[in-house]
């Protein structure tokens, strides 16, 4: 291949991976905050607690979208160095309407469950990116 520079491609892949890792960690922090407010809500939080929790959830959702974008860029760079992988996170809704409309233990528990599921997905993606980055840096 004309103009192909493996070292340059590896460097670009590592940079894209570091960016994705940073985005994922930021999303995880915001999910943790949302989860903390969710626990408060489960044990008797009111409307204000709900507003704060959902603000954190909205922030986390946006940060997860950013991480998803960065993961796609990382996957593209990995293909340039002939490493194929399937990295993804689900940025689905967090049952916001149900939580406000039926503000009760069941709705709060469902929302908390969604937050925990999202945290697990982000944690899994972080572990995968870290593992791939270790492999890339060994070359």
Give keywords.
mainly alpha, single chain, coiled coil, 139 residues
Instruction: Quickly give the structural class.
Output: mainly alpha
**Number of DSSP helices?**
4
Distance between the termini: 20 Å
Q: Could you report the average pLDDT, rounded to the nearest whole number?
A: 82
Total number of distinct structural domains: 1
Strand-residue proportion? under 5%
Number of strands: 0
Helix and strand pattern:
HHHH
Helical proportion?
A: over 70%
Low-confidence stretches: 94-102
Q: Note the overall shape.
A: elongated
**Structural Rg:** 18 Å
Largest sheet: none
Coiled coil: 57-84
Keywords: Coiled coil
Molecular structure report:
This protein has 139 residues and is mainly α. It has one domain (6-138). The protein is built from 4 helices and no strands.
């Amino acid at each position: 291949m004309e103009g192909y520079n493996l070292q340059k491609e590896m460097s670009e892949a590592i940079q894209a991976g570091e960016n994705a890792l940073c985005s994922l960690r930021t999303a995880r922090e915001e999910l943790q905050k949302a989860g903390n407010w969710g626990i408060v809500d489960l044990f008797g939080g009111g409307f204000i607690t709900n507003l704060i929790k959902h603000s954190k959830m909205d922030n986390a959702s946006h940060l997860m979208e950013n991480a998803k974008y960065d993961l796609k860029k990382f996957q593209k760079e990995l293909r340039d160095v002939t490493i194929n992988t399937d990295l993804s996170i689900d940025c689905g809704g967090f049952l916001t309407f149900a939580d406000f409309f039926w503000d009760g233990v069941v709705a709060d528990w469902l929302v908390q469950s969604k937050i925990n599921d999202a945290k697990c997905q982000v944690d899994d993606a972080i572990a995968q990116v870290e593992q791939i980055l270790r492999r890339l840096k060994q070359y």
